[in-house]
Amino acid sequence: MSELIGPFREIITLESTPIKGALTDDQMGIVSEGGVIIEEGKIVSVGKFDELAKEGRKISLIETDQILIPGLVDCHTHLVWGGTRSRDYTMRMSGATYESILEQGGGIFDSVAKTRSASAEALLNDLITRANRHLDDGVTTIEVKSGYGLDVENELKILEVISKGNDRLIVDLVPTCLAAHVCPKEFSDKRAFLQHIEKELLPRLKMNRLTKRIDAFVEPSAFPKDVAYEYLKTAKAQGFDLTIHADQFHTGGSDIAVKLGAKSADHLEASTEKEIELLANSDTVAVALPGASMGLGMNFTPARKLLDAGASVAISTDWNPGSAPMGDLLVQSSVIGIYEKLSSAEIFAGITFRAAKALGLSDRGRIATGQLADFISFPFDDYREILYNQGKVKPNMVWKNGKRVKDV
Ligand code: NIG
Ligand code: FE
After folding, report:
1. Residue partners of 224: CB distance under 8 A and separation at least 6
2. What distance in angstroms lies between residue 66's CA and the mean position of ligand 2's atoms?
């Protein structure tokens, strides 16, 4: 049965907002005093509440001023890990670099040891807690990477935890295999390790339907460009979608992301004009990760330049125990917005339908006919209040697949 929800002071529909390039706020498709009709978890229509109310169907009345926007999509996280990396953070505050900690066998290796020794049950409980906190903050779709296993058994353990989490949670999880995070200590040759993963892990991911997506950390300290390219090319030939940790400290990753038609190239803090141009002329989404810039005390992804050149830019938390422990998409979006000089339209697009595109999804991220009924509302009478509050005001209502799952 269909249901009309409203009236909302403003609905930021993003219905026809372009998938690529710079945006101004008049491109957000705002409907004032609007309503949304939903049926079986999907949006049937959006329009003026008074007009829609004439059609005589069940109405869920919203009695206070509210601004409605699409449910948020966090297209890059590492939510399954054991232990903590507070020691790294303290060392970095005192001047140690992320790469030097990694080279000394800490950093990612520290999380690998703690994740390998954690039980699947403990990892699942932590994943559920983290994902539910995200849902409470308005995130209705979360990409989750493996990558702290680094051997067949533990990578499978993590991806199975993500699959179980998906069955138990309201929020949608999109799994990605990041076995190519760094080369484990058991292998002295990086190419040999990736060939082992190609042979022993990738077929099992397919067989057990654990993921359709492969990621690699392309960086001299992790996997150099030529080594990563061979692996990613093989994964693509096997039918996997690609996403790449690219240009975080050195360039190289975005070049192969574009060459291989990856869904997204993420990080890009070190990208220069050349990489910006490559991404802008491609179908690969450029994903900014302000949480990593804040966690490492380094520059932001050049989001302004990417948008002006014509790229599709998404914003994501990179929530992980090392470089980005905060995991708050609204706080981070407001902060990168003020440093990079982004419009509200560019930010809202970056955490909704452009982030969905980075995951290869076109069924969410806009409040429009046929889209999933995933939307969130804030207790304001003007959309500008949302980013102005820098994330300290969270949505007070959240709908996932048409069901109201938060109402405070
Ligand atoms: O996206 N840069 C590589 N991987 C993660 C960090 C992982 C970690 O430090 O545990 C990132 O920043
Ligand atoms: Fe990451």
Report:
1. 190, 218, 252
2. 34
